[in-house]
Amino acid sequence: MKLGAFSISLKVKDIKKSKTFYETLGFQVFAGSLESKYLIMKNESSLIGLFQDMLEHNIITFNPGWDADANTLDDFDDVRVIQKHLKEKKIKLISEADESTSGPANLMVADPDGNVILIDQHTG
Length: 124
Known about the structure:
Elements: E1 5-12, H1 15-24, E2 28-33, E3 38-43, E4 46-52, E5 59-63, H2 79-88, E6 93-95, E7 105-110, E8 116-121
Parallel strand pairs: 1-4, 5-8
Antiparallel strand pairs: 1-5, 2-3, 3-4, 6-7, 7-8
């Protein structure tokens, strides 16, 4: 299964302090803005999303159809194909993509320890 770009989305208390901290680790702003209270920070192929006042908890994120630079991939598994596979394996979904549509969509699932995984397709 091709899940696409991987990142961790972090719930942060102070976006400016978090930005400074991750810049110290070598990350640079890749997307988002302080005004929007979210930043996507990048260090080589590592991506960390910083979200102030948006998330209940940290989330593991995959973006089918994107590489680590948010370039569209020609060959990827659509989120609906991934969803079908998860359902066939009896994995309980927190939220689902509308299978009657195409293009951008997402689903959410939790691992056995309650860690939330967002599979968020922006292309297609």
